[in-house]
Amino acid sequence: MRLRKLFLGLILGTGAAVLAFAAVAQDAQSPKQDMKDAGHATKNAAKDTGRATKKAARKTGHATKTTSKKAAHKTARKTRQGAEKVEDKTQ
Q1: How far apart are the C-alpha atoms of 57 and 37, rounded to whole Å?
Q2: Which of 63, 79, 81, 90 is least enclosed by beta carbons within 10 angstroms?
Q3: 69 φψ region: left (φ > 0), alpha (ψ -120 to 50), beta (else)
Q4: What's the pTM?
């Protein structure tokens, strides 16, 4: 009688452990799904980096353009001033 109870308890305990392990295994993601998730995360990070790079390049290009124009106009003004001084001295 005592051996039957022990045997029955052992079977029920083993069954409960198997069910608990199966439930945990189903909740965990498969390695394949983990790789897919990592791929999606990498893709989104690359998109964000691309957008930031585009914005920075546009901003830098605009700044370069305006600075170049300012420098060209200042150079032209100084050239005109120098030409006027030479013209005044030669007359």
Answers
A1: 30
A2: 90
A3: alpha
A4: 0.45
